[in-house]
């Protein structure tokens, strides 16, 4: 390992590898057929064996290498000392040079937001391409870097296709592992939740005169669809999403020039002592963010305070 790389690049390089190992674990659990589904209470708020095992793996691996990181995860599992911490470092990440603003960051300044399995409801229903593993990095309350691993990418493309992919990014450096198809002008495809909908979510969507509304699981998945040009905005007028759902997606969107904010257009904060829910909802775009924000109806603004 190149110890001359900045801390943020080393943390990212390790996280890319850790996310890869996590993806193998998720695929193993899926093929075992024993998902171990637990209802955490509320609307489609599920947990499986994959959520807990992956969170343990990510937490133990990161902390063994970088003990001073602040790691916050959805499942809040106790550290598992048996998790194999030797995932290594991704060379493609280490070979980049750090943007100057982050070159002097120290471990203790980085807050890591982990969603071990985003799109759990869809995972249990076999909608496998909606599932992602999210590792996001925040500094001074801002999402600056992240990894999105899609463990079942290509699962319908035949047995020759390589299963799974990793997208990673850092603000000021860019994001890697994605492909954009430029959408036709004038189109407005909105993408939103399929398992956490309600009247307010639907009111917001219908106020935006969409060309079409797509309903898919996962915050990571929906952000990727926006980045790659399959949808024009991810719109979720509900407080159900948490910081670990949005940190990595927001950082990667920002790294490619996009935005992810609440429905008021205000930045989401990721400080280590912040409350978990994104009470102001979520809107993400690759471009023309303010155009979408301006279409949010007053009732939604009133009900979703930042
Ligand atoms: N009402 C809710 N209760 C629990 N989790 C929610 C709720 N709404 C959204 N989420 C979380 O936000 C993410 C994005 O929501 P959606 O997939 O519905 O668009 C989901 O993957 C889910 O995380 P997770 O699947 O990790 O539990
Ligand atoms: Mg999630």
Would you spell out the secondary-structure blueprint of this structure?
Blueprint: H1 7-32, E1 38-39, E2 46-47, H2 49-65, E3 70-73, H3 91-94, E4 111-118, H4 120-125, E5 132-139, E6 142-150, E7 165-170, E8 174-176, E9 189-192, H5 199-206, E10 212-215, H6 219-227, E11 233-236, H7 243-255, E12 259-261, E13 282-285, H8 289-293, H9 298-303
Parallel strand pairs: 3-4, 9-10, 9-11
Antiparallel strand pairs: 1-2, 4-5, 5-6, 6-7, 7-8, 11-13, 12-13
Helix pairs in contact: 1-2, 6-7
Bound molecules: adenosine-2'-5'-diphosphate and magnesium ion (MG).
Compose a concise summary of this entry.
The chain is of the alpha+beta class. The protein has helices spanning 7-32, 49-65, 91-94, 120-125, 199-206, 219-227, 243-255, 289-293, 298-303; strands spanning 38-39, 46-47, 70-73, 111-118, 132-139, 142-150, 165-170, 174-176, 189-192, 212-215, 233-236, 259-261, 282-285. Strand 3, helix 3 (91-94) and strand 4 form a beta-alpha-beta unit.
Describe this structure in words.
By secondary structure, this protein is of the alpha+beta class. The chain has two domains: 7-176, Fructose-1,6-Bisphosphatase, subunit A, domain 1 (Fructose-1,6-Bisphosphatase, Chain A, domain 1, 2-Layer Sandwich); 189-303, D-Maltodextrin-Binding Protein, domain 2 (3-Layer(aba) Sandwich), CATH 3.40.190.80. It is built from nine helices and 13 strands. The chain has a six-stranded mixed beta sheet, sandwiched between helices. A hairpin with a 3-residue loop joins strand 7 (165-170) and strand 8 (174-176). Helix 1 runs antiparallel to helix 2 (49-65) and helix 6 runs parallel beside helix 7. The longest helix has 26 residues, at 7-32. The model has no long low-confidence stretch (mean pLDDT 95). The site of adenosine-2'-5'-diphosphate has 19 residues, from strand 4 and helix 4. Magnesium ion binds at residues 115, 118, 219, 245.
